[in-house]
Amino acid sequence: CQMVFSADPRPLKYNTFGPYPQTVFADSCYVRVDTAEEADFIYLGTPQLEIDGTWVDVENIEPFKSRLEHFFSLNKPLVCPNPDCRAAAPGHLNPVVRQGALAAYYESLGGRVSYFGKPYPDIYDYMLQFIDCPKHQMLMVGDTLQTDILGAKRAGIKSALVMTGISALEMAESGETDMQKFASAQGIVPDYILEA
Q1: Hey, is 66 helix, strand or coil?
Q2: Is the separation of the CB atoms in 51 and 71 below 8 Å?
Q3: Using an 8 Å Cβ cutoff, are 52 and 33 in contact?
Q4: pTM, entire model
């Protein structure tokens, strides 16, 4: 088992924040513990609130700040498996918070965060080993310049940005009306722009 934060050969203990797929740590050397105090690191699941036994999305990080500050007071590193800061969600007119927003707040406190997922190359390297298709025949379709499109660019895969998601909303919030110009200003230009 590869250790993320330590050369110590003992299995690392983790605590979780929010719901997460139980398969993430299946058949691994990592051991789940019930409290942050006894954990070696905190795994950021989906930032949701549990209300009457149901996980509910929220549109800002305010409900999570005190818990993140507690993790920081314990000097616990975070693992962020989804660097997206916001996402569209059923039942919400506005985007909801995702792990990247919590990780950014944690870093602003001075906390340590290890990121996985788009746009980092490790997730593409992992995926590509299972796909029998040359990169020039692949297309990454996504709604976020900073994760979906940037990740594809770094991996050498063509990309298509859909105008029904986060980057289109960010463009509108900035007052820009031309996605090509908005993307160029960020230095992350998709190969294609799709209306839907």
Answers
A1: helix
A2: no
A3: no
A4: 0.83
